[in-house]
Amino acid sequence: MKEKLNMIQNSGQTSRRDFFNWGINGLGATALATLLNRDLPGGVSIDQDNTAFPNFEAKAKRAIHICLIGGMSHVDSFDYKPELTKFHGKTLQTDEQPDIFFGQMGLLRKEDWQFKPRGQSGLMISDMFPHIAELGDDLTILKSMESKSANHTPGLFLANSGFEFNGYPSMGSWVAYGLGSEAESLPAYVVLNDQRGAPNTGASTWSSAFLPADNQGVVLKGGDQPVRDLFPARKLDSKTDLATRNFINQINRNHLTQTGEDAVLSARLKSYELAAKMQMSIPEVADINRESQKTQDEYGVSEKKTADMGRRCLLGRRLLERGVRFVQLFSGGPIAGNPRASWDAHENVKDNHTKEAGRIDKPIAALLKDLKQRGMLKDTLVLFTTEFGRTPFAQSAKDQVGPGRDHNRYGFSCWMAGAGLKPGMSVGQTDEVGWKATERPIPWHDFHATVLHLFGIDHERLNYYHNGIQRRLTNVHGEVVKEILA
C-alpha cells in the first residue's frame, strides 16, 4: 500500500492534499445513490423495519416532478372561473381576515388569459400554456389543493417534504428510500435546477434529512462537470487512477477486518463503487447532443427562451430511461430579485406569467409527448406543482384593481399525468371566484399519499425511526385521492 501511495504522490499530477480532498469531498460527496438493494428482485426495497416495498402492484416505476417556484395563478391557468368576469371590480365578500402575504386585498379581477375547452375531455385550460393545453386529454388536474402556509419558504417545504420546516426528507428522498434505484451507475434521485439559481429553500428542498444520505437528491448541471467534484481537480492517467482506487479500497478492507463489519462503512464503500461508475455514466447521459436535432428542436433546446428548460426536460427523460427513480426540475430560482426570476407575480401577473410560462410550456409539452411516444408514460408519473396559488382579487388598495395578485394558500391547482391515473379529468373545486377549496380539499399530505400509492407504497408503512418517533412523509395524516386512480 505504501508503494501505491508513493506512486500516486510522485506522479506529479496530484498532491497529498488533493488526493485526500478528492477522497473526502469528491467521489464520496457525489455517491448519493444506493447499491444496497441491487440483489433484491425488480425494484424491491426493504426499510429499517424489514418492510418490503412496494407493498402492492405499482403503477409508476419512476417520476419526473416539475416544481414551480413562487406561486402560479390557478385562476389564470387551470381553474376556470367565469364568475370572476361578472364580479370584476367588486369586493370579495368575506368576514374573516385572509392569510395573505402582503395583506393588500384589492378588488376582484378577471383572468388575464382566455380559457377554452381542450381535446375530447373538454378540460378548461387557458392560453397561458398553449402547448400543454393541447394535451389536456392526458392531464389529471387537482383543482382543490390547499396549503398551511402563505409564505414561500414554509410553503415549499410543505410541498416537498410535508412539513413547514427544514430537516425533513423530501418526497424524492422518500421514494428513493422506499424503492431504491433501477440503475447501478446512476443515483436514485436527481435534481435539475433553473439556470437562474436554486430555489430559496436551497439544498434543504431535496434533502434526505435523517434518512440515509444515499437518498438525497444529486444536483446535475451542464458543462464538463455535471456533478460537483465527480472528477479530481487534476486529471489522472488510468494507471494512477486505478492505483488510487485500489489503495483506498485496501485501506477500507483492512479497517473492516480489524474492527468487524460496520454498516456505515460498508454503505460508504458501496457509494464509492457507485461514484466510480458515475464517472462513466453521468457524462454520457448528460450529453443531450446524442439526441437528434429534431428531438432537440421539439424540446426547444435551440431557442433562447426555452433552451434551459428544454435541456433539462430532455435530460430528465434520458435519466428516467436509464433507471433514475425520481427526477426533479425547478421552474424559477430565488424569490428575491428585480426582475423576479420566479412565478411570484405580486407586481403584474400578465407580465410575469407570460415570461415564466413561455420558458417552460413547449419543453414540458414535448416531454409529455416524448414519454407517450416511447411508451414510457404508462409507468412514468409526471407531477406539476406550485407551493400555492394566487388571489382572485388584486394586490392593491382595497378600492383598486391592480395588475398583481398576492399568495393564496386556501385553494389552487396542480396536475399529474401518466401512470395509474384517469386522464382528461379534474377533481375538486374552489368557490365561484377561485378563493377557497370547497369540494374535496386536497392538502399536501393527501397529494403525497397519492404519489406513494401510485408507486405501490402504503404511505402509512413507509416509516423511519428518528428521535423516538416513527417518521413518515405524510406525518400522521394523508388520504389517497382515489377519485383520480384508473
Outline:
With 486 residues, this protein is an alpha/beta fold. The protein has helices at 2-9, 16-30, 83-86, 130-133, 152-161, 171-179, 238-259, 263-286, 293-299, 307-321, 349-373, 444-454, and strands spanning 45-46, 52-53, 62-68, 115-118, 123-126, 139-146, 189-192, 218-219, 326-331, 380-386, 389-394, 405-408, 412-418, 425-427, 429-430, 437-439, 442-443, 464-466, 469-471. Helices cover 32% and strands 16% of the residues.
What does this structure look like?
There is one protein chain. The chain has 486 residues and is an alpha/beta fold. It has one domain (51-219, 287-484): Alkaline Phosphatase, subunit A. Helices cover 32% and strands 16% of the residues. The protein has twelve helices and 19 strands. The strands form six sheets. Strands 3, 6, 7, 8, 9, 10, 13, 14 and 17 form a nine-stranded mixed sheet that branches. Strands 1-2 form a two-stranded antiparallel sheet. Residues 1-42 have low confidence and may be disordered.
